[in-house]
Amino acid sequence: MRRDLPWRRTRDPYRIWVSEVMLQQTQVATATPYYLRFIGRFPSLDHLANARESDVLAAWAGLGYYRRARHLHAAVREVVREHAGRVPEKAEAFADLPGVGRYTTGAVLSIAFGVPLPVLDGNVARVLARWCAKPWVVRNPRDARALWEVATALVPEREPGDWNQALMELGATVCTPRAPRCAECPVRASCRAFALGKPEAFPPPAVRRASVALRRAVAIVERRGRVLMARRAGALLDGLWEPPGVDVAAGAKPRTVLAAELRRLGLTARLEPTDRIVRHTITHRRISVEVWRAALTKPLAPRATLRYVDPDSPDAALTALARKLAARSGRRGPG
Ligand code: SF4
């Protein structure tokens, strides 16, 4: 049942930490190549601590939830500064690092150092809700407290890391959201949901977040094979680069709002429409992106938030939309 995953072959707390951060909100199959590339690029805590943020974000590009990468980077720098470069084994000290929550603390310290702390992720929550036959939903704070209590009561003093990984693995491979394989389950004899004959009734189905349709207009400015990118701000894409653009409210004219956005960025440009629409989805947002071609009528004044980027460079910390737009911009070669 135990899958052979690259981060299972190590006790290096740094590598385990990287894998646990990547696996939050990302499936194993998606995270694995990113993990291998990231560790290849930053093989030790010191390598990551000494890296530039733009390089860290570039190595993370495509995984989404960039705040995780930024926090990880800040946290390893703090480990170097405050803990002589050694990942702290004490839960209070580790949990004090930027972006480190209860799950990451339990996972890293139990697996790397054998500290008997529990973990609770979506898979573990499902196993425990079924095992107890309780309608607990991990997103509900009161249910989460109950789930943490059960997880804490169960975690053993000996080999807590193996226990936590087995529980996560059970949820990922046997006690799956749909059609759990109860016949193969090692805890079947004590599972209350199984005894009731309705394992899939726990936890109750989540209410799906409705998807939202959005419009965006972007300006493609090209120079010698490079594309002008603006640094994005905001929770989701903060610090990544994308062609300058703006969301277009219902009833607004894309040319007008895009021209206003370019002026706000200090750009003076002539906009020409293209007939290209790029479809892009981020979390629950379906974005229809109108692509405009822009010619600068005044040279670009130096700014920290604007730069020409070779979109084919793997080192560029671009958003997924930026890569899509660049792939379709029909760039000309150097000239
Ligand atoms: Fe999940 Fe079935 Fe195992 Fe219960 S017996 S923990 S429902 S796989």
What are the SSEs and their pairings?
Blueprint: H1 13-23, H2 28-41, H3 45-50, H4 53-60, H5 66-82, H6 91-95, H7 102-113, H8 122-132, H9 141-154, H10 160-173, H11 192-196, E1 212-220, E2 222-223, E3 226-231, E4 241-242, E5 245-247, H12 254-264, E6 269-282, E7 285-296, E8 306-309, H13 320-327
Helix pairs in contact: 1-2, 1-7, 4-5, 7-10, 8-9, 8-10
The structure holds iron/sulfur cluster (SF4).
Iron/sulfur cluster (SF4) binds at residues 127, 130-131, 174-175, 180, 182, 185, 187-188, 191, 193-194, 199.
Report a brief summary of the structure.
With about 325 residues, this protein is α+β, with helices and mostly antiparallel strands. About 40% of the residues lie in helices and about 15% in strands.
How would you describe this protein?
The protein has 335 residues and is of the alpha+beta class. The chain has 2 domains: 6-201, Hypothetical protein, domain 2 (Endonuclease III, domain 1); 212-327, Nucleoside Triphosphate Pyrophosphohydrolase (Alpha-Beta Complex). 41% of the residues lie in helices and 16% in strands. The protein has 13 helices and 8 strands. The chain has helices spanning 13-23, 28-41, 45-50, 53-60, 66-82, 91-95, 102-113, 122-132, 141-154, 160-173, 192-196, 254-264, 320-327; strands at 212-220, 222-223, 226-231, 241-242, 245-247, 269-282, 285-296, 306-309. It has a 4-stranded mixed β-sheet, with helices on both faces. Strands 2, 3, 4 and 8 form a 4-stranded antiparallel β-sheet that branches. Helix 1 (13-23) runs antiparallel to helix 7 (102-113) and helix 7 (102-113) crosses helix 10. The radius of gyration is 24 Å and the shape is globular. The structure holds iron/sulfur cluster. Iron/sulfur cluster is lined by residues 127, 130-131, 174-175, 180, 182, 185, 187-188, 191, 193-194, 199.
